[in-house]
């Protein structure tokens, strides 16, 4: 298996590089917005569960 990983043709290599770079840049730009969205969703779920228990 190691022999197959030693060579990555230029097309696949540049595609892999582009995918990694775009993922990092997307998370750096929209990371805080995504974090706040998830925090809001989890807080609203937690608040709904708290209201049902009372």
Number of helices: 2
Computed Rg: 21 Å
Task: Work out the strand percent.
Answer: under 5%
Would you list the SSEs in sequence order as H and E? HH
SS-derived structural category: mainly alpha
Task: Describe the protein's architecture and organization.
The protein has 54 residues and is mainly alpha-helical. It contains two helices and no strands. It has one domain. The termini are far apart. The mean pLDDT is 83.
Secondary-structure map:
Layout: H1 2-5, H2 10-53
Keywords: Membrane, Transmembrane, Transmembrane helix
Transmembrane segments: 20-42
Quick description:
With 54 residues, the protein is mainly alpha-helical. Helix content is 89%, strand content 0%.
Descriptive key words:
transmembrane, 0% strand, membrane, 2 helices, 54 residues, transmembrane helix
